Amino acid sequence: MSPRAQVYILAALLALMGAGLTIYKNVELGFPLLPGEYRTVWTIEAKVHFNADGGPVKAALTLPRAQRNMEVLGETFSSSGYGFNVIREDDEYRAVWAKRQASGVQSLFYQLDVHQTPGAALEQPLDLSTKVVAPLLGAREQEAVRQAIFSLVGTARERSSDTRTFTSELLTALGDNRNQDRNLIFGYYKDRSFVDVALLVLAAADIPAHRIRGLYLEDDRRRLDPEDLLEIYDGKRWVVFEPLSGSPGVPKNFFIWQRGGKSLLDVEGGRDSGVTFSVISNDVPARDVAMLSTSQEKEALVDFSIYSLPIEQQSIFKLILLVPVGALVVVLLRVFVGLRTSGTFMPVLLAIAFIETQLFTGLAIFVLILILGLWIRFYLSRLNLLLVARIAAVVVTVVILMGAISVVSYKLGIEQALTVTFFPMIILAWTIERMSIVWEEDGPYEVVIQAGGSLLVAVLAWWVMTNRYIEHWTFNFPELLLVLLGFIMIVGNYTGFRLGELARFRQLVR
Amino acid sequence: MQLPSFLRGGLVSPFQLRKLGVLGMNARNVHYIARYNDRDKYPIVDDKLNTKRQAKRYRIPVPELIAAFETQPSRTRVMEVIDPLEKFVIKPARGSGGKGILVIVGRDGDEYLKPSGSKVTALDIQRHVSNIHSGLYSLGGKPDRVMIEALVDFDPVFDKYSFEGVPDIRVIVFRGFPVMAMLRCSTHDSDGKANLHQGAVGVGVDLATGKSCHAVQRGIRIDKHPDTDMRFSDLVVPGWQELVRLAASCYEMTGLGYLGCDIVLDRKRGPLLLEANARPGLAIQIANGVGLRTRLEHIEKMDLEQLEKNVEERVAYSMDYFSARPLT
Fold first, then answer.
1. For residues A93-112, b (16+ Cβ closer than 10 Å) or e, as one string?
2. What residues of chain B, 111 to 130, have a C-beta less than 8 Å from chain A?
3. Could you say which of 2.60.40.10, 3.90.950.10, 3.30.470.20, 3.40.50.720 is the CATH number of the domain covering B3-44+156-321?
4. B residues 135-164 lying closer than 8 A (beta carbon) to A
5. pLDDT digits (tens, 9 = 90+) for B105-118
């Protein structure tokens, strides 16, 4: 295979790999493609309160299970003086607080952060019982209620074709307070909630059903009581219904706390117990949400990446990851334009310094140091020093110059110039040395050309590197470096003319 | 890229350049240098001491080497060598682009004369030697060796065509076939240097006859030397065939497929190989007013039998085929 074909194949593979990883991270892990994307994170707090009798106390709260459309980013428990653990019981997680002695009003807190991931359907629970326990309505005084229930069920059955439409129909009937049968039933079950009654009627109709407890996520809600939904089994799968409207599907913004099962809260050794919820929404950068949700799943792509480094090192890497972009700018300008610079990749280092110092301060400091350094170098060259010693002398001078610039500008109140320390000193010293040689051999004009070329490339590289999209992509999708690598390889194969050559060979075309 | 020439006129279409067979820098690097020049042969041309050694083996005439300092020489050692000399050249063994070459043409008391007439002291020369040795002129700043060469006793034919400087002839040799040649004449403008981008005149030389066919200064066609007013149309390089033969034989000496040979004419010894270059520049196309690519592609199309010709046959073929106005 010719080297050229190899380059294209390799470049295509690299680009595919990079693009594939990027798409995976974006679609599956939720890393945002564009900077400045925010996601809503809901903080839900459950407050368990009860009056302790003075003896041993044990409170057990059912915890929400992992759900496909809600990602749990983190949870915290607070319980002063209580022993705490999470136990698994019949496929449910329960938080259990216990204390040997407690009296008076007790409050226990459980807090979790969730993020809604749109689109994912509710998973089908395989472990929920589909057994129907028919309600006991044998007694004489229940005769009327029984008739009413059967009447409701019969009407609903007539007006429907399958279990789903039947349930919808039944729930609408139960919600219609002009319906005599419905009023009779609710009159009998005065102390029961709507969902309790609906469950009873569904049981009478021989449809497996259970309750779903949860919350509507709305911003800044306090002292919320859990809301109920109904879930019925239509013979093949479980379907959720909003009981009051009778429409199928989980309502938007509904956070499911408990699905089926028994009680939400059990308290032993206390009275007047209850759970209230409060909900707050926060807008959190999308990237942080992705980081939180992936760190829990130990996603290898994220776990073995620079994100696992301490924050300080990460911020260094943020800069390092920009270097390839600067290198690309240099390659493009060299291959397609043909700009001459002093030191091939020196402009990239300059651009990095500019990022720290801001452009104009950086340019001013660079030109100042270059001019002063050249001037001192001309004197040094008359002293007959060995080259290495002379460059070392220039390095020391550059450092002294930097110190002087810092101090003087600080005294003058120009704090920006304090950032001079970011300039790569050794590189500056070599640049000064090279420039002075160019001056001696080719004259000051060539120095201006080369320094100007370097500065132009550095400014362009700086401009690209500080682009917020570039910054975002290099740090959040380092795998894009593979795409960049492939692109550089293809550029390395370019054999056409450079822009400068179109002018240089102008005379050949007459 | 030259800023002033860039500003002076517009751009031309790359397709037009391609049609004319002009070779660009990128194409030169990828198609010719990378493909025909093996990396392991570079040291032969990049280090001029190696070039000299190799040239001796192949009986190619070169300027006489007086001394080479492998390590940092002491002052007395430098003085010992240069003291008896009237004219000499100090060069870095691995310098590039003519950097770091100090030419001394005479003495004035304790001081040494440069071709421009300016004077340098023995101390300046010692500093220059020390600079070369520290790697100031070598690629990547590697420590370098210093060589002291006898100054070539230039053939006076070019005296009228060169101002203050050394005229040399560059021949591009591709797979052993000389393909293009030019004479570089320094001018007042170029400060005695033979670099075209500094204002030296590039004179295209017809491979068939050694006569000038085209001359350019700073990208503009001229027919007289700007300082001496000599017409280039009268210029003929003496002993042309011998010179072309020397260039062609550098292929065997270096093993490099794409090669630039810098040759000077000595009054008595004839053409001498000054240095060989594995990355010859493209200015030769401007000097000749002709693109290189057509010629290189012609040789690439040759079959194996033609490529195995000896030096004489190759020279004969090139002088016949690549004459200035061959078919047009």
1. ebbbbbbeebeeebebebeb
2. 123, 126-127, 130
3. 3.30.470.20
4. 135-137, 141
5. 888 888 898 877 88
